[in-house]
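Re-run requested by the PI after the first attempt was lost when the workstation crashed. Everything re-entered from the original request form. Ligand of interest: zinc ion.
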Amino acid sequence: MKLFWRYSFSLFFFIPVFLYGSPFLTVKQTTMDPGVNIPVYEIYGYPWISVSDFMMEIGEDPFYDTSHGVITGKLESYMITIRGGSAFIPIDVYMYHLPGPVERYKNDLVMPLSEWIRFLHTEVFPNLYFNSQSNLLILDPGAYSIQDIKLQNYKNGSTLRIETSRLFKEEDINIWEGRNGWLYCTIYGATGDTLQLSKSYSSGILRHIIPIQMGETFQLSFQLRNLISDYDFYIDPDTRDIVINLRKPTTLSADEKISKESEKWLINTIVLDAGHGGRDPGARGANGVKEKDITLDIVLRLGRLLERDLGMNVVYTRKTDVFIPLHQRTQIANNANGKIFISVHCNSHENRRINGSETFILAPRLTEEAIKIAERENQVIRLEENQKIYEQITNEQYILASMAQSTFMKESEELAALVEKNYTKKLKTTSRGVKQAGFYVLLGASMPNILTEVGFISNKSDLEKLNRASYRQQIAESLFLAIKEFKDKYEKDIPIN
Ligand SMILES: [Zn+2]
């Protein structure tokens, strides 16, 4: 006796239940498809789907013989026949056996949603994506592993559900809070449709979601409208969703709130990036001097000063002569929750008379000029194993990525100006000023960030100076003073109780 779903009750007891807020299954052909809604009924806790509606909406050339309760139609060029009262679904000449018969309900043919999904998955759409939480079915989700983002607001906070088509591990995911109400989430090994996932909300905790595909990493920047006291995340074992909980700061006292808030704003962690390294020597000087060695020496000197005199937490993208891909450098900075990112380089020019320093901030658009200026420092990507990462950065993605850090633009510019000012004061060199360029190493940094060129390795007098340890110490000291001034200015306004 088969009792799988032939329950001993009349089908007239079927009551449409508002499952998860919707008595429908949304079916999309692809991620981009707006989708159609197919009715779902619930009985004894199980959702049942109207397969006749499914075939009418999704099938090709559907024909529904309502008097006999038989529907035929094509799914992916397979001819499919579903018969009320039968547990067999003929597919072309083959028979698929259901654990129980298809039932007739009013004018619909219905069966358990899970069995219908199983049938579609094994017989017709091997890549289908189904999320039972949001009742979403995508028949051909493509290569994207991030399918959708759903926001739910509660009294004490909000939940962000990142719907994924595969199971991620917790170590693939990094979430951190930036300044000015930004929350960032990077998912390593994920892909998503940046256009489709980019969203704006007119009210509630979330203002914008800005997705960026950075090679193998998918980054979501959430701009929050309200303060949050804290957040955590977990991976839902049932749906594979990445769930981020955002909590409103309701339980803290006013003093606690201020001190917690103050701490977030302290410029306590700095990320120092010594340009180049390993198989990438950077620019070369006349006497065989390599940019990578000069930049590392300056960065280590600067780090010591910041630790010793300002008690800052210094994070280095490299402390030795190793090769680090550009995008990883920014990732190190973000993961460290850095408050400042400084990339140190030496310049080079075919005109050997050109000398002095210049400091860059990220250009908001990838203009020809921005590309040209950044060309020399960006060309290291030729040495990287995964060059595709950068080929994928289209102009539009670049704009989105730089937009995510537009909140730091003003601060980056101030920091860059302070750096140039202190060089001029202390090093007595020519300052070529603060400029904008499309440096990949700065793209995606969620903190004020600059790239500073401390001098021209191609210029005889600059090179002579750069070769002296005492001069490199002076560069480190100028940078130290600039950082101190910047830190003092921004920390002055933080309320301390
Ligand atoms: Zn360089």
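Saved to the shared folder this time. The pocket of zinc ion is lined by residues 275-276, 282, 291, 345, 377 (CB under 6 Å).
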